[in-house]
Amino acid sequence: MAERLQKVIAHAGVASRRHAEELISAGQVTVNGSVVTTLGTQVEPGDQVAVNGVPLTKEKLQYFLLYKPRGVITAVTDNKNRKVVTDFFEDVRERVYPVGRLDYDTSGALIMTNDGEFANMMMHPRYHIDKRYVAKVEGIPTNLQLQPLREGVRVDGRKLAPAKVKVLSRDNGGKRTAIVELTIHQGLNHQVKKMFKQVGFPVIKLAREAFGPLTLDGMSAGDYRKLTHQEVARLKEMAE
Ligand code: URA
Fold it and tell me: Is there a single domain that holds both residue 188 and residue 140?
């Protein structure tokens, strides 16, 4: 099957799709020995693609679920040398990167892959993949006080899609906190924290317990596991 040149380069793990486009435009890419600068050029499986004279070898597509611990940045590098999610994948030959992001102080389920197409599908708001979070919040909300979250609260001037919300426990002691489960399918920056802040219950601690059908059952913070073919297929199906 013919594929777009920038996609082939991105899949080989040499560059992101955007960077691949820049390499092509800059004349650094050859197909069967000839420089190609047209974005979207179709290449066939047998074609020899090279970047700066180095032939591509196609990477195997890999899909993992990481139980991201708190205190780790969702990025592939950090200029302050803090721990990043790719540090957990040093034994994996392919260059995997995170699908979406979890905050530095948020733990939980994070997909890591080198399949750019799949990553886009998982992140696009058009595709409704539920993410389930558990938050410890300051204060003890009544069901009524959380109702705006169920109806679609307004954050940064934008009305969000309705969330599923359930109070799991209330601590009426000295600290006055509650544990609340929240399921959303959007993935805006700091969305969960902003949603709770909006209704007056700031998040103290946040964890993502599920990404679609993927849960952290049997895993500890810092563990990762390969997704099964069925899980990958199921996620693609959900996104379609
Ligand atoms: N919402 C947040 O506020 N933080 C996260 O890490 C994920 C969702």
Answer: yes
